[in-house]
Amino acid sequence: MPLSSISKLRRASLSSESQFADSSLINLTPTISTVHHHRQNDNVKLHEGQQFHRSPASYYASLLQSCVARKAINPGKQLHARLFQMGIGFNTYLATKLVNLYCVCESVRDAHQLFDKIPKRNNLFLWNVLIRGYAWNGPYEMAVSLYHQMFEYGLIPDRYTFPFVLKACSALSAIEEGRKIHDRVIHSNCEKDVFVGAALIDMYAKCGCPGNARQVFDMIEARDVVLWNSMLAAYSQNGQPDEALALCSQMALTGLKPTEATLVTVVSASADIADLLVGKELHGFGWRHGFESNDKVKTSLVDMYAKSGLVKVARTLFEQLGEKKRVVSWNAMITGYAMHGYAAESLDLFEKMRREVVPDHITFVGVLGACSHGGLLDEGWRFFNLMVREYHIEPTVQHYTCMVDLLGHCGQFDKAYNLIMEMKVVPDSGVWGALLNSCKIHGNIELAELAVEKLVELEPNDAGNYVILSNMYAQAGNWEGVARLRKLMIDNGIKKSTACSWIEVKNKVHAFLSGDTSHPNSDAVYKELKRLEGLMAEAGYVASTGSVFHDVEDDEKTSMVCSHSERLAIAFGLISTQFGTRLLITKNLRVCEDCHVAIKFISKITKRELIIRDVNRYHHFKDGLCSCGDYW
Q1: Which of 321, 630, 381, 318 is nearest to 367 (CA)?
Q2: Could you tell me which of 180, 176, 229, 241 has the C-alpha nearest to residue 207?
Q3: Angle (CA) 590 594 598, round 5°
Q4: Could you read off the pLDDT of 13-24 as tens digits, one per residue?
Q5: N or C: which end of the chain has fewer CB within 10 A?
Q6: If DSSP codes are grouped into helix, strand and coil, which group holds residue 164?
């Protein structure tokens, strides 16, 4: 923020000191009156011109500290008025306590007003208090500005200053400013301090630099649980759940006792990669360490079980939360149902939620997602309007993404495109990606080309967008278009993402790539696939090869489709588990149309429930049907 803007902000924040001297505010509380009575008994006169037999500062300091502890702003203002009338309102010791009181009570403007009137501002604690106030309550730029002003008064920031100003940098995502402060931290020999270190880790995490956060973490030898939690959160917040879980294992070896934050972070990490084995272990670990009644931990478990396909288990834990559930708990269960395509259950739970608590913007992401996955167009518009008109929630890019996806899936491309053009926020890759996927379903190549054009601007190195359009060209027999896209990818050094699917069997995770022959049980896997193909053909299955990226012979296309990674994972699961065992397979890309058809046949032939978690949603295959209703 320019210094001129900061000056204007400060001037705007100042109000007249006389407001505190107004007699209408001097209506002292019983506590203050009682202390005043005792002071009179001690022969301490408060009238102007008389000297104190004892210092009054200790009495008022004690009262102010009591106000701070209770966040009692009104009695604090009354004390301020009394001090001002007595002529000791600018006593540095008492003024610092008043500044602290106003900051704690989120009245930072009043704190800054008083701060500016203190004649001797060479007390470091005073500056730290005000910087903390802005770091907690904003505007965060003021915290950074005060940090720089300290040097003009000859003050050197200490181990208490740095965490506050770094917190402001985190809120601003001000990575360059944060790096400069990090340099000062090193110069001040504070880098190994756990509080400063935790603030640096948080700053780098919020700015999307987990590698820098880990460098700070590794520098500190005496790590407490707060520091470990900060690093765990840094990995989890930046899409590195595997690293978070690995670090958690290291933390366990140190013997440190986990906290609520520890468990919530690592359970969420296990949910992100659908690692049910680790999630169950963490569930048991949490219960053994006394977190059975902790709502935050239990809510993270609700999310984990939902993402791992065990929706009924998630609902059981959700109901155990009791009657007064937090909004985040409702959101976890509503979103969990939505991810699995259980639109009716999600919307029913939302109606129940509305009678208990006020939904927030995340709630409506889940609700609109449920409508999108269920193809509920009228309901989607109703809830979108409800969010805006009744709950006064401004739509975010996530809400628009759900609506574009819903409109596009229903074939209403004009309305979907017009909604994008009317968005009050800038459309991101999620919005254009939703439109592209809808175009793929309905074969709208013209609009798909526009969507890809926008996506290339936003994600120039994402091969998936090229592949979708290329597959659309292939399905239309436009091999010239396929060749053009392939050349464009080669010229730009863009490689097609490798499809990978993984399955957990007997407490071990097995991963498969498309056409993979590296697994120790590869021969048995392909033998099972061959057996299934024969039974599927007898049942009427014919491979659809229209989405194959290359212009090759039909028999080669069929071979390429039939060795997709999810089929290999399913075949391995079938030969490695007992009859009737439900299988959960996770894939890093979207399930192709042919595999979706094939897995329906496999579920009917083998009488197995097969759950596929791809990047879009969950598919529950059972008795030849899919929970998505062929709508994804």
Answers
A1: 381
A2: 176
A3: 110
A4: 333 333 333 332
A5: N
A6: helix
User: Residue 623 pLDDT > 70, yes or no?
Assistant: yes
Report the distance separating Cα 572 and Cα 577, nearest Å: 9
Contact predicate 254/282, CB 8 Å: no
Name which of 213, 143, 209 is nearest 172 in CA terms: 143
End-to-end CA distance of the chain: 45
Helix (H) or strand (E) segment spanning residue 626: strand 625-626
Strand partners, 586: 502, 613
Sheet holding 610-613, edge to edge: 508-513, 500-505, 583-587, 610-613, 618-622, 625-626
For residue 517, give both structure tokens: 């022959």
Helix or strand holding residue 508 (H, E)? strand 508-513
pLDDT digits (tens, 9 = 90+) for 32-43: 443 343 333 333
Beta bridge partners of 500: 513
Q: How many residues does the chain have?
A: 632
Whether 561 contacts 548, CB under 8 Å: yes
| Contact by Cβ (8 Å): 585, 609 | no
Greatest distance between any 2 Cα atoms in the chain: 108
Assigned token pair, 562: 């039939």
**Cβ atoms within 10 Å, residue 281:** 14
Q: Rounded to whole angstroms, what are the CA distances from 598 to 196, 308, 535, 604, 612?
A: 55, 22, 11, 10, 13
Q: Within 13 A of 6's CA, how many CA atoms are on the CB side?
A: 15
Residues 6+ apart with CB under 8 A from 74: none
Please tell me the pTM assigned to this model: 0.76
Which H or E element spans position 505? Answer: strand 500-505
Span 91-144, pLDDT tens digits:
777 888 888 888 888 888 988 988 888 777 778 888 999 999 999 988 999 999
The dihedral over CA atoms of 276, 277, 278, 283, expressed in degrees to the nearest 10, equals 80
Could you tell me which of 188, 173, 180, 172 has the C-alpha nearest to residue 134?
172
- Please give, one letter per residue, the 3-state secondary structure of 232-288: HHHHHHCCCHHHHHHHHHHHHHHCCCCCHHHHHHHHHHHHHCCCHHHHHHHHHHHHH
- CA dist., res. 554 & res. 415, Å (int): 38
Please state, in angstroms and rounded to a whole number, the distance separating the CA atoms of residues 419 and 407: 9
